[in-house]
Amino acid sequence: MAEEMRIVLRNYGKIDPLKIEDYLAQGGYKALEKARSMGQAALIDDVKKSNLRGRGGAGFNCGMKWSFAASATADQKYVICNADEGEPGTYKDRLIMENDPQSLLEGMAICAYAIGANQGYIYCRGEYPQVIEILNQAIDQAKAQGLLGDFDIEVRSGAGAYVCGEETALIESIEGSRGEPRFKPPFPPVQGLWAKPTIVNNVETFANIPVIVDKGGAWYADIGNPAYPGTKVFTLTGDVNNRTFFEVPTDTTIRALVFKFGGGIRGGKKFKAVQIGGTSGAFIPESLLDTQVAFDAMSAIGATLGSGATFVLDETRDLVDVSTRIAKFFEHESCGKCAPCREGTARMHELMKKLNEGKGSSKDVALLEKLGRVMSYSCLCGLGQAAPAPVLTTIKHFPADYNAKLM
Amino acid sequence: MANYKDIINGLKDKQGGIIEAFHALQREYNYIPEEAIAEAAQVFGVSQAQAYGVATFYSYLSVEKRGKYIIRMCESAPCHVAGADEVIKAIEKHLGIKVGETTADGKFTLELTECVGQCQATPVITVNSEPVFNVSAAKVPEILSAYK
Question: Whole-model pTM?
């Protein structure tokens, strides 16, 4: 059975995050030096070879993304770190930034070298003022040591908009606008921040980079599930004994996550469901727990890996109530730009509320299924497309919870 | 208190920095005063309507006057199943206000928020952005008594 393996959290608890000397003593910034000696093309090839896929939820091949921005011709390019960690039940990026901020900066600097950028931004959620303080200190220390060269990094503060985790909404926000997603294409590597080629990667993605460069793409590609190699940080919440975090190889099963690492269900109760990836994730029943926590394996069971949030519910939980709460979340967080999401999330919450209060019928359930299907293919961005998943999967896997509340 | 014009002008060279200016204003006043929105619009070269649109898009920013201590209760799913509803009721009862209101003495404002990323110790509230862990209805009076 899988053991914990720390790559992005390799320095957790081992260094003083506010002492760059500690990071350097662990071999920090050697990877940046190596990257610069490799040359841009060979560096990007090695990142591609590692098959590192974006840890923010979309799972796109990181080296491939970088190659698009590298081959774009422009007088200015940008590197952005998405640290707008707003996914309910997730705090992995905070752990990385609080405990090893230099690892993130080094990953960004390697990316900047690879694509030819000299300006970076870390878009950190406004709810983390303490983290912003740590990042600013870390940047000052790296600059004072001359480690970043001509690459400059500025921290920008998010302001409580879940949709800004979507990369084009995040870019709009850095530009000082309402965080509404853009139509794509063009994609950010071609036309992003201030219309210049821009790489947006998640904190966890960047934190992997120094280790990949140091040990080589082939080494990384060999860890975990071959289609989505490496490790993933999971944060466990809800009715598990160990409400904490773990970094595990991606061939770990959901069952191991909940029962081995999570220590099973609290209070000797039975398992009912687990929602992985955040609040838009599917609710997964017991019968599917032997799935590996890798991107495509999760897609194959109609679930997502998302942020790695792992929300466990015991046998006493009412999934209609929980899904109603989640439907309220999406109504609140819909930015309102596209009608299917603006209207859809509101109607979905309305119908769920009706069912949760015992005033709904099987017709409402059927209507929810239809609405969810339409939203999943007609909404502009991932928020609206994924919003129906908790409702649709609880209807599919836990019909008894709905039937118990029908009029 | 610092002058709002100085706060805004201190950030005028930041490209797209209007949100940073709003954060700085909010750190000083706990909300963004109307005259400051107009000033920020001028400094960052957008219309007042656009500036107001930005200020009201983001739930962490407020254009309404708020109390000295802003209590935010997380109501995302992990806190929800850990008993967030009972905590909200206890805070409302203790302060004699509803969500969205400020106490008559201007000391506390109560708001709801989505996940604040401290899910290792649910339910969580934040008071002026500092998280308070493992809150329960019974602990509410003691927790709030620490804020003078």
Answer: 0.96
